[in-house]
Design goal:
The protein is α/β, with parallel strands linked by helices and 355 residues long. Helix content is 32%, strand content 18%. The strands form three sheets. It has a six-stranded mixed sheet with strand order 2-3-1-4-5-6, sandwiched between helices.
Amino acid sequence: MAARYRVIYCLNQFFGGLGGEDKAYQPPQLIDGALGPSILLERLFPDIEVVASVVSGDNYLVEKTEAATGEIIALLAPLFEAGDDKKPQLLLAGPAFNAGRYGMACGAICKAVQEHFAIPTVTSMYLENPAVEEYRKDVLIARAGEDVMAMEESLKNMAGLACKLLQGKELLPDRDGYIPQGRRKNYFADKTGAARAVDMLLHKLAGEPFSTEYTMPVFDRVQPAPPVSDMSSARLALVTSGGIVPRGNPDRIEAASASRFGTYSLHGLSAFTGETHQTAHGGYDPTFANEDPNRILPLDVVRELETEGAIGSLHDSYYATVGNGTSVANAEKYGSEIAKILLADGVQAVILTST
């Protein structure tokens, strides 16, 4: 039987079978053999042998990145003290899909391990995972589907890319299914740039397919809503991505890569105070926001406008999440869900604050 590639596999607490959010702060632990998705990976790729699995809570890794990756390095060190025929050859992490915290954890582990042990690493994420922008230049990121429904396809893509990497084959983003790292390679083309540009133009005019040599970024454009004609009769709502939540953060909204938004009552409140509310946001100094949460979400001023008759009424609840590292896809989902609630209540205008 031919020698198999010896692989370390990294998972978060959920895919590692430890639990859900209740285990999100679980420190790293090393487990012999395959676990969770890597069991399927071995079935799909008989050339791969998962010699050990690292399982850790994604919150633990995101909030204590340097310490957590150091713990993982220490756990893995004995594996690299074996003979050359026993040492791990590769580390795989994920797929993280569109889960921001899991993506950040996978990226941090891959970067730390490849730098410390000088072995290749590969992770797998959805293109809009916030960790992609953070780690794509340092870590090879295979393209994954948006959620766990794409597990098998994402595993195949990640492992196929890893095998080519170990075999020393030349890799190309479009062909080999990974997210471009922004690297350019010089080569001699058969035609000059001018001739290639004219060829592309002719294909475009003829309605024929062609491939650009420089893909431009795509920016979403939203048509602004028309102005409210009479604010004195309008119903207004408050929404924030600045993380203003009741004291204790009852919904456990994450400090980065938020996986949810919260809905909180404004009944009986004329203003926020530092005793009743706080910020859950991890992307700015919370001192002034915790001292006076109205600095982020101006309930005090809006109540004054309501009393003066400058606005008709205020929606009974406000909605909050954390924008720090939150993916575009998740932000769009939260916005859509909140908008449905507001439209059903007859809200005509929203004050949307950030940081």
